[in-house]
């Protein structure tokens, strides 16, 4: 499998996108659970018309990974065509403030962290892949430019230390946290167990108003606005509304 993964990394990106779109449709047809999650999530968000594009784009996201993890870092970030809003980042850096980057499962989110790391130190939480063959490839691809911190208490301490030093940290705010590490907050009108780590870390950078629940809800609201701009690019098949084991149901 590792050989095939590296072989795919040498194919032209347009060809990988075509293969990915085909894979996305095959996955859609083969998995009733995946179809149900995608249909329900998109309907709740009011973007059901974008379902066909979302199926293909989900597959493309997977087939972009060989390029992201198995090709030289300079080649990867060289594919970034345009960046908007970078002046806000430069302003924060000039003030010596730490930065919390929140990137949802939208588009080629993996390349975002790699690009940011070309301009400043970036620490991200990392959970080792369950696939033994993929773990070293993933670690090498991400570790070439990022500071990897384990997804546990020691990793959180590293994130806090990075922020105190005026560096940047990054995370996926729409990833379901474990029991005790989140609160129920609305996401496209439905309660979703939402991590509080992002809101807590922001206290070391630019504090948000309100309690943790209010801050988590505000983050979700901002994510919704971003996702609505490019609904086909979001991973709607992800079971975002899953209730982790031991977490009481929302009131």
Helices and strands, with pairings:
Blueprint: H1 2-9, H2 13-30, H3 32-45, H4 51-70, H5 73-77, H6 86-94, E1 99-102, H7 109-116, E2 122-126, H8 135-143, E3 147-150, H9 153-164, E4 168-171, E5 182-187, E6 190-195, H10 197-202, H11 212-229
Parallel strand pairs: 1-4, 2-3, 2-4
Antiparallel strand pairs: 5-6
Helix pairs in contact: 1-4, 2-4
What does this structure look like?
- It is a single chain.
- The strands form 2 sheets. A 4-stranded parallel β-sheet has the order 1-4-2-3, with helices on both faces. A two-stranded antiparallel ribbon has the order 5-6.
- The protein starts with a helix and ends in a 22-residue tail after the last helix.
- It has 11 helices and 6 strands.
- Helices cover 51% and strands 12% of the residues.
- The chain is an alpha/beta fold and 251 residues long.
- The chain has one domain.
- Helix 1 packs across helix 4 and helix 2 packs across helix 4.
């Amino acid at each position: 499998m590792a050989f095939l993964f590296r072989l795919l990394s040498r194919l032209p990106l347009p060809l990988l996108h075509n293969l990915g779109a085909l894979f996305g449709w095959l996955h859609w047809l083969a998995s009733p659970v995946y179809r149900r999650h995608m249909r329900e999530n998109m309907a709740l968000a009011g973007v059901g018309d974008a379902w066909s594009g979302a199926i293909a784009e989900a597959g493309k996201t997977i087939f972009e990974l060989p390029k992201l993890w198995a090709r030289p870092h300079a080649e990867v970030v060289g594919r970034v065509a345009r960046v908007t809003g970078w002046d806000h980042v430069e302003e924060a850096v000039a003030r010596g403030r730490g930065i919390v980057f929140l990137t949802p499962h939208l588009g080629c989110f993996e390349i975002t962290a790699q690009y940011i790391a070309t301009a400043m130190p970036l620490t991200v939480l990392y959970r080792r892949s369950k696939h033994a063959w993929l773990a070293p490839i993933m670690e090498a691809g991400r570790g070439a430019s990022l500071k990897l911190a384990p997804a546990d208490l020691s990793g959180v301490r590293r994130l806090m230390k990075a922020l105190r030093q005026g560096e940047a940290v990054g995370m996926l705010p729409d990833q379901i946290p474990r029991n005790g590490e989140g609160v129920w907050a609305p996401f496209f009108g439905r309660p979703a167990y939402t991590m509080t780590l992002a809101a807590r870390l922001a206290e070391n950078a630019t504090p948000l108003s309100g309690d943790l629940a209010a801050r988590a809800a505000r983050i979700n609201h901002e994510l919704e606005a971003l996702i609505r701009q490019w609904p086909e690019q979001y991973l709607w098949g992800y079971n975002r509304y899953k209730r982790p084991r031991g977490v009481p149901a929302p009131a």
